[in-house]
Fold:
Amino acid sequence: MTEAEKAREVLLALKSAESAAPDAALAILNGLMGLVRSESVNQPLELEEARSTAFLSVCEVGKALHRGQPIGSLWASAIAATEHWMALAK
Structure:
């Protein structure tokens, strides 16, 4: 799977999880971890940073869901970070 395909898959899942119940959303986010983790393949630094930012944003949403805390703007931040990663991966 290419970097762009991974980013697109994460973006689609985030948008789906955003409208799901908290438990279902958390399950969707947990399924994304393999896609956003960094691989040992040499990628441009800017792309690695974008993927890392997306990963951390997804983790923040997951932590808030797990703790039953308000999500607020965390969805928007995770989606924006993933869109940035996807744009760089093209």
About this structure: Residues 3-37+48-89 form one domain.
